[in-house]
Amino acid sequence: MSDDRTEGSMKKMKGDVKEGAGNLTGDSKLQSEGKADKGEGKIQNAIGGIKDALTGKDKTDK
Description:
Layout: H1 3-25, H2 28-55
Helix pairs in contact: 1-2
């Protein structure tokens, strides 16, 4: 599995936490940052998936 997929998943989770915290506190800036982080994470994860597909690796390879 590509490092991009791992890092992308972590960014997405970080974004989920930030967005949730922003929702709870009513902080629109934190909500926006969380949405941006989630978007970056999704893109990075997708790029990792493409790299894995091109190199023949899948989720179960180590």
